[in-house]
Amino acid sequence: MELDVYKTLKAPSDEILFKERKSKFFGYAYPIQHEDEVKPIIEALKKQHHTANHVCYAWQLGIEDIIYRTNDDGEPNNSAGMPIYGQIQSFGVTNVLVAVARIFGGTKLGVGGLISAYRTAAQMALDSAGIIEKTLQQRYLLHFDYSEMDKVMRILKQHQIEIIDQKMEMDCTLEISVRKNEAILTENIFAAMYPVKIKKLDV
């Protein structure tokens, strides 16, 4: 059985502050749905922390096809973005952006110190965010004559299938949503119900 449950954030985290040898690391975690959301959030953080030397981040999107990016924002290679991304993996979350703004305190931390500090700030941000489980859904359109209505409704109720949208005329159209794991079963049930037509929708 393929896994159709994933973890993500319910809402943005609170701002957290981690201090290391006078350097301040402000950590944030955000739920995101698209890569386009990243740039405005990072720009807003740079304005908010205009004295920050670096705003480093990592994000991950996708459940079955995962894409991710990391950004060190001028810190030594892989000393910031990758440790932040490591925490996204450690928490097992996706559709998430974690950013850490660093205000330099006058003492260099060295690469090891930076890795540890960015990792800790990312961990604290994810800890303070509400992590929730979501289920992957597949949507379908059902087309049928009004005369088939009772039969269709009975099956939807029996299998606890969610109706997203409906148009009820002589010709009826229902948009339904089912768990990914139950998609094939649903297709088979309605495919066997002549003259009901079922069409898979791209979500």
Automatic annotation (TrEMBL):
Superkingdom, according to UniProt?
A: Bacteria
Biological processes per GO annotation = regulation of translational initiation
UniProt xrefs under InterPro entries: EFG_III/V, Impact, Impact_N, Impact_N_sf, Ribosomal_Su5_D2-typ_SF
Domain Impact N-terminal: start-end pairs: 21-126
Pfam families per the UniProt record, alphabetical: Impact_N
One GO term of the cellular component aspect?
Answer: cytoplasm
Family in the record? Belongs to the IMPACT family.
| Protein name, as recorded | Uncharacterized protein, YigZ family
